[in-house]
Amino acid sequence: MKNSKPENDIGLIKDLMERSSKFSNISGIAVLFTGFLALIGASFIYFDIGFSVSEVHISYNQLISQNGKPDVLNLKLKLLISIASLILIASLITLYFTARNKSGKEGIALFNSSFSRTLKSLFTPLLSGGVFCLFLLHHQMYGLVAPATLIFYGLGLISCSKFSYYELEFLGYLELVLGFIASYFMGTGLLFWIIGFGIGHILFGYYIHIKYDKK
Questions:
Q1: Rounded distance, CA 208 to CA 83, Å?
Q2: How far apart are the C-alpha atoms of 8 and 5, rounded to whole Å?
Q3: What is the band of 190 on the pLDDT scale with cuts at 50, 70, 90?
Q4: How far apart are CA 31 and CA 203, in angstroms?
Q5: Measuring CA to CA, which residue among 213, 202, 161 is closest to residue 34?
Q6: What is the Cα–Cα distance from 21 to 124, expressed in whole angstroms?
Q7: Measured between alpha carbons, how far is 98 from 67 in angstroms, rounded to an integer?
Q8: What's the per-residue H, E or C state across the chain?
Q9: What is the pLDDT of residue 195?
Q10: Beta bridge partners of 53
């Protein structure tokens, strides 16, 4: 019993050091929610739920192969970009407010050095991938856009896992593999995007919630 207090103190100090050196304020529920958003939005595009123009049904595969009237294909592309942008904005807002709330409960500042390191290591590959995807869109190489987002996102997760949850590295490798497979099977990129961004985030968010948030 005499050693219990020093052991507890050491454990507390170790926990505080890990929190200060790693960004661990991401909410598992928020990650899970972003997965559902990605799943719903991407499914809307891939399975053409409720989408038609002038009574002409345009599928995702038709967009990739550019099989259709240019104005209709262009509208389909705009819809895809709009939905992807809404998902991204909603996800970032959700992640920010839940992280701020979690930081407040734990008494740790949200905008600290670990946060900046995590953000920099994540967004450097993401911004590079975003620019690359714009070039793909410019050259009408639509079939590689979804695979490219998976690949660059995977690189970002692997990079930022050093400053956050180490499990992010495994999710990153999953996104990479899915991106490579989707690059080979042209026209199926959005399906693998649903698996990676949708199902992958749902499972990862649930895991983080059970392992870390419930402590």
A1: 27
A2: 5
A3: confident
A4: 9
A5: 202
A6: 20
A7: 43
A8: CCCHHHHHHHHHHHHHHHHHHCCCCCCHHHHHHHHHHHHHHHHHHHCCCCCCECCECCCHHHHHHCCCCHHHHHHHHHHHHHHHHHHHHHHHHHHHHHHHHHHHHHCCCCCCHHHHHHHHHHHHHHHHHHHHHHHHHHCCCHHHHHHHHHHHHHHHHHHHHHHCCCCHHHHHHHHHHHHHHHHHCCCCHHHHHHHHHHHHHHHHHHHHHHHHHCC
A9: 93
A10: 56
Confirm if 169 and 161 have CB atoms less than 8 A apart.
Answer: yes
Contacts of 11 (CB under 8 A, 6+ apart): none
Average pLDDT over residues 74-100: 80
Phi, psi of 49, rounded to the nearest 5 degrees: -70, 115
Task: Give the residues across from 56 on adjacent strands.
Answer: 53
Return the number of other C-beta atoms located less than 10 Å from residue 203's C-beta. Answer: 15
Structural tokens at position 13: 């100090």
- pTM for the predicted model, two decimal places: 0.80
**29: its two tokens:** 């529920």
